[in-house]
Amino acid sequence: MNTDKKPILAITMGDPAGIGPEIIVKALSLKETYEKCNPIVTGDAAVMEMAANQAGNGLRINAISQVKDAIFEYGTIDVYDLNCIDMQTFKQGEVAAQCGDAAFKAVVKAIELAMNKEVDGTVTAPLNKEALNLAGHHFDGHTEIYAHYTNTKKYAMLLADDFMRVIHVSTHVPLRKACDLVKKERIIDVTELIIDACRQFGIDNPHIGIAGLNPHASDNGLFGCEEKDEIMPAVEALKTKGYNVEGPVPPDTLFAKAKCGKFDGCVAMYHDQGHIPFKVVGFNWNKETGKMESAKGVNITLGLPIIRVSVDHGTAFDVAGKGVASPDAMLLSIDYATRMAKNKA
């Protein structure tokens, strides 16, 4: 196996009933992808062959059962075949237990390959949480699966696209609980994670903006006490450690400045505070066609012993199999995973 010193990336198929197989095929149909990395898809070879045939780009599927059997040649997609889908009952665009199980198995195999150092990083296509749970795998999503199978306790979600890089103090919890999770130590932890990530992206001394929780970052206590009690002490502690941090910054100001490059990264206090500005920047809806024209942006899980980068969009069952899904986020995910693998200490 000749890797030419390019990192080997395991790309999970995602839910086969969604757009995962399609965007993978489109990304791997570009020669530039193979110029930067050596990709292997973990999933079902028959599903990937169907996606390649639907795309009509002439790509060949090479089904393998070991990484060493991959050929890493442009024009051929190496698929670590888990043979996990019954094609006789499979339907695109529908929630199904077998699809949730297939997506889960693809992720677990990618993690296993990375933990065994057979691949240098992993990239995940979208899965469907309902299908995942129908299959008996009771996880909130990719992040929790990775944390479980790598035995990681301290981790966080980072969204990245151009200048906009956002990490979250909390993610999949009710909003009422999210406010209670704004704690000094957690803010310090996630800020250090995004600083480490920025350094992997090649930014030596990243400037990090830390959001307030309340309107106007509480206006000196007029609208809440979290800034005074938790966020400001965290900022001061981080500055004492020598980090280039600023905050608490009112969120409406923080993300507007981040979009234009003032900050190398942002710390959001809860899920929607970070996701909404990020998707406003990266997602483009076409009013005339009534469809999402492009959905850029990646989701990186920080704190893991392995690299995990994912597209930051869903399975899009409504357009699965129609050939209209954009591979932009998959291409960006592959690019980020490649850079992180090359810069990993």
Give the structure's gist in a few sentences.
This protein is an alpha/beta fold.
Topology:
Elements (H helix, E strand, L loop, with lengths): L7 E5 L7 H9 L2 H6 L1 E6 L1 H11 L4 E5 L11 E6 L15 H19 L5 E4 L4 H6 L7 H8 L6 E6 L2 E5 L6 H6 L3 H17 L6 E5 L14 H15 L3 E6 L1 H9 L5 E4 L2 H12 E4 L4 E5 L2 E5 L5 E4 L16 H16 L2
Parallel strand pairs: 1-2, 1-5, 2-4, 3-4, 5-14, 7-10, 8-9, 8-10
Antiparallel strand pairs: 6-7, 6-13, 11-12, 13-14
Helix pairs in contact: 1-3, 4-6, 8-9, 10-11
| Outline type | globular
Portion of residues in beta strands equals 15-25%
Largest sheet, strands/sense/barrel = 12 strands, mixed
The number of distinct β-strands equals 14
Helix content: 25-40%
- Spans where pLDDT lies below 50 across 5 or more residues: none
Please give the order of strands in the largest beta sheet.
3-4-2-1-5-14-13-6-7-10-8-9
How many helical stretches? 12
Instruction: Kindly report the oligomeric state of this protein.
Output: single chain
SSE pattern, N- to C-terminal: EHHEHEEHEHHEEHHEHEHEHEEEEH
Q: Which structural category fits the helices and strands?
A: alpha/beta
Q: What gap, in angstroms, lies between the N and C termini?
A: 24 Å
Radius of gyration over C-alpha positions, nearest whole angstrom: 20 Å
Summarize model confidence as the mean pLDDT.
92
